[in-house]
Amino acid sequence: MQAKELVQLAEQFGSPLYVYDAAKIQSQYKRLTSAFSKVEKLRINYAMKALSNIAILQLLREMGSCIDAVSIQEVQLALHAGYSPDQIFFTPNGVSLEEIEEVSALGVQINIDNLSILEQFGTKHPNVPVCIRLNPHVMAGGNANISVGHIDSKFGISVHQLPHLVRIVENTKMNIVGIHMHTGSDILDIEVFLYAAEILFDAAKSFKNLEFLDFGSGFKVPYKKDDVETDIEELGKKLSKRFNAFCKEYGKDLTLIFEPGKFLVSEAGYFLAKVNVVKQTTSTVFAGIDSGFNHLIRPMFYGSQHHIENISNPKGKERFYSVVGYICETDTFANNRRISEINEGDILSFRNAGAYCFSMSSNYNSRYKPAEVLWLNGEGHLIRTQETFEDLLKNQIPLPVIATA
């Protein structure tokens, strides 16, 4: 999207504002499917926790995507957006047996990631198709909080517990139809991914009635100019060849599944905020915006770097600014970043704001959550209105009138 278009959207819908470029989401989806075009059966399950607006879900459904959900509420949102139960995978962590049973009753494919729930579910529902999430004990990911396949991770059943797992399956006569892994997010070294894939292939040999193998996702996207990213095309070439060979060994054409979230929507997102004040101190020039980590927490939570542009003055002389928010504690988006000269009232654009940005926003400091807009076919479509004071009061119950002495 062009700076001029983004400024116009900020003027039309106000700030702060999330904007998503539909064309970028579509091109990323096509890029991934093209990379694995040599696989006979390929399924993309969009990890909707990245961005769960139903308009985005509908856009991806039209392209042929299915859904990866991590809560029953996400399952219900996907159903509301028009997905059928067989297009939804439920991949939770640490949820109750009751929640898994409730999702299973909807006809959604369930994925179980611990031995306790696996045995309980298999004993009660031996005929229900189940996928098992394994922990390959492979460290991958750009941050400790998003590396989920290592030995100390809470996610998945340890591959070293495979004999115990197989014993549970044999005792309960469960119907295991899939094996799943997810090593982490921001994977750069595809050799690490391929190494983990070999662990999954080896484990799959213990189950005779598989229909699919789910390799998770975690592909890295660029966050700044000349940034590195996962070479999807190279991964597609190497993994497709190995997957097809394994299917021949297994004696059956299995479905290859990925569950990308960030890869599909991160680069499509722009977060727009207005500069409230430019504040000069003895050592720093602060650009204070009309937002904070209540709307975009990733820089404070993960230390992530989102490229920031002054779209009101894109060709201005660059100066150093620390971009900060209006939350009443340390609330920093960037320290001493080179940005085109900023004046009060300018609109700043934060790139890569499509994944885990709005979905992690909050009402901290009792601020409203911003609106969301989808840029589709050269036009901005409002897909979520900005919250109002009534939204803050919703579900709150005041005390009854209390008589005082």
Automatic annotation (TrEMBL):
<feature type="modified residue" description="N6-(pyridoxal phosphate)lysine">
    <location>
        <position position="49"/>
    </location>
</feature>
<keyword id="KW-0457">Lysine biosynthesis</keyword>
<dbReference type="InterPro" id="IPR000183">
    <property type="entry name" value="Orn/DAP/Arg_de-COase"/>
</dbReference>
<comment type="function">
    <text>Specifically catalyzes the decarboxylation of meso-diaminopimelate (meso-DAP) to L-lysine.</text>
</comment>
<comment type="similarity">
    <text>Belongs to the Orn/Lys/Arg decarboxylase class-II family. LysA subfamily.</text>
</comment>
<comment type="pathway">
    <text>Amino-acid biosynthesis; L-lysine biosynthesis via DAP pathway; L-lysine from DL-2,6-diaminopimelate: step 1/1.</text>
</comment>
<feature type="domain" description="Orn/DAP/Arg decarboxylase 2 C-terminal">
    <location>
        <begin position="18"/>
        <end position="354"/>
    </location>
</feature>
<dbReference type="GO" id="GO:0030170">
    <property type="term" value="F:pyridoxal phosphate binding"/>
</dbReference>
<feature type="binding site">
    <location>
        <position position="302"/>
    </location>
    <ligand>
        <name>substrate</name>
    </ligand>
</feature>
<dbReference type="InterPro" id="IPR022653">
    <property type="entry name" value="De-COase2_pyr-phos_BS"/>
</dbReference>
<dbReference type="InterPro" id="IPR002986">
    <property type="entry name" value="DAP_deCOOHase_LysA"/>
</dbReference>
<dbReference type="InterPro" id="IPR022643">
    <property type="entry name" value="De-COase2_C"/>
</dbReference>
<dbReference type="GO" id="GO:0009089">
    <property type="term" value="P:lysine biosynthetic process via diaminopimelate"/>
</dbReference>
<keyword id="KW-0456">Lyase</keyword>
<feature type="active site" description="Proton donor">
    <location>
        <position position="328"/>
    </location>
</feature>
<dbReference type="InterPro" id="IPR029066">
    <property type="entry name" value="PLP-binding_barrel"/>
</dbReference>
<dbReference type="Pfam" id="PF02784">
    <property type="entry name" value="Orn_Arg_deC_N"/>
</dbReference>
<keyword id="KW-0210">Decarboxylase</keyword>
<comment type="subunit">
    <text>Homodimer.</text>
</comment>
<protein>
    <recommendedName>
        <fullName>Diaminopimelate decarboxylase</fullName>
        <ecNumber>4.1.1.20</ecNumber>
    </recommendedName>
</protein>
<dbReference type="GO" id="GO:0008836">
    <property type="term" value="F:diaminopimelate decarboxylase activity"/>
</dbReference>
<dbReference type="InterPro" id="IPR009006">
    <property type="entry name" value="Ala_racemase/Decarboxylase_C"/>
</dbReference>
<feature type="domain" description="Orn/DAP/Arg decarboxylase 2 N-terminal">
    <location>
        <begin position="23"/>
        <end position="266"/>
    </location>
</feature>
<keyword id="KW-0663">Pyridoxal phosphate</keyword>
<feature type="binding site">
    <location>
        <position position="218"/>
    </location>
    <ligand>
        <name>pyridoxal 5'-phosphate</name>
    </ligand>
</feature>
<feature type="binding site">
    <location>
        <position position="356"/>
    </location>
    <ligand>
        <name>pyridoxal 5'-phosphate</name>
    </ligand>
</feature>
<dbReference type="Pfam" id="PF00278">
    <property type="entry name" value="Orn_DAP_Arg_deC"/>
</dbReference>
<dbReference type="InterPro" id="IPR022644">
    <property type="entry name" value="De-COase2_N"/>
</dbReference>
<feature type="binding site">
    <location>
        <position position="298"/>
    </location>
    <ligand>
        <name>substrate</name>
    </ligand>
</feature>
<feature type="binding site">
    <location>
        <position position="356"/>
    </location>
    <ligand>
        <name>substrate</name>
    </ligand>
</feature>
<keyword id="KW-0028">Amino-acid biosynthesis</keyword>
<feature type="binding site">
    <location>
        <position position="329"/>
    </location>
    <ligand>
        <name>substrate</name>
    </ligand>
</feature>
